[in-house]
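[job 4471] stage=fold_predict status=RUNNING
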Amino acid sequence: MLGHAIRVGESLLVLFFIACLFTLLGWGGWAIALTALLAALFWFLRPYLWARLEALIEWVFG
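[job 4471] inference complete, writing structure tokens
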């Protein structure tokens, strides 16, 4: 349960930094919409992305 909470917290932190980046790029009005779109996309692709990340880590570190 704690591990899940930490992963959710890390995800929210990453989304916060992405929103800040969009704002710094001058896309202030679009920052929330783009961040929400990315969050939905990553949430949908999460199982695939985790599988690819695990395969990459296994390949790199043997």
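[job 4471] summary: The CA atoms of residues 31 and 45 lie 21 Å apart.
[job 4471] exit 0
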